[in-house]
Amino acid sequence: MRFFELFRRRPSIRACEELADFIDQHSAFLVQKGIYEYSRARAGHYAKVLFSEQGFRDAVEASRWRAYPLGLAMVAELVEGVLRPYAADRHRQLEALSELVLSVFDRYPVPSVLGAQAWREARSELVRRLGLIGMHAPKRAFEICEPWAETYFNLMPIHEKLRRSEFPTIRNYLRVTLCNIHDEFTRRLDAATMAAALREA
Q: What pLDDT, on a 0 to 100 scale, did the predictor assign at position 186?
């Protein structure tokens, strides 16, 4: 990357494919960063040794794929809350957004660490979670993680006895990161154009 590219304005989000890419990238970032950083912090000086063990690498891989649909649900809810004021038909917009999020999930083949049955169940659960978004008023970014934080915490590839008291740390990580994602999304979003694109979809 060239030096001046660091200061280049990120492209606007105004088309469905651009929105899909944003949701994909930030959902993956949200869940993976937490898993890797928490595991490294918990392992301390032994992190390099721990991450070199195949059994632990497999556990991390399973954790991140199980967590990815949670990330999709959280980022989708954030996106829906920002776009809701621009909806001509709120139900139709949510339906289009849900289909877009599921298309992002479907970009990926079945993870070998989970298997086809678990991946199908993860998709079904994502459908359920997306259906819940329209049942309440939009939440502030830091509130979105509340229903999912414990589920995410329980996916950490660290033994339960070693992480029992650290749930607040993980929840705060999700809160802060969702606020940062919200800030980037609102900076880059062309809301009226994006809402129109979802209507056409």
A: 97
Write down the domain spans for the chain: 13-200
Contacts of 94 (CB under 8 A, 6+ apart): 80, 87, 133, 134
C-alpha to C-alpha distance for 117 and 128, rounded to whole angstroms: 17
Residue 108 has pLDDT above 50, yes or no: yes
Give the residue-averaged pLDDT of 172-199.
Answer: 96
- The predicted structure's pLDDT at residue 31: 95
3-state DSSP call for residue 201? coil
Joined together, the tokens standing for residue 111 give 């993870």
b/e burial code for range 8-43 (CB count within 10 A of at least 16 → b): eeeeebbebebbbebbbebbbebbbebbbebbeebb
Using alpha carbons only, give the angle 166, 157, 33 rounded to the nearest 5 degrees.
75
The gap between the terminal CA atoms of the chain, to the nearest Å, is: 35
Q: Which residues contact 37 (CB under 8 A, 6 or more apart)?
A: 173
Query: In this structure, what token pair is assigned to residue 188?
Result: 């880059």
157 DSSP 8-state letter: S
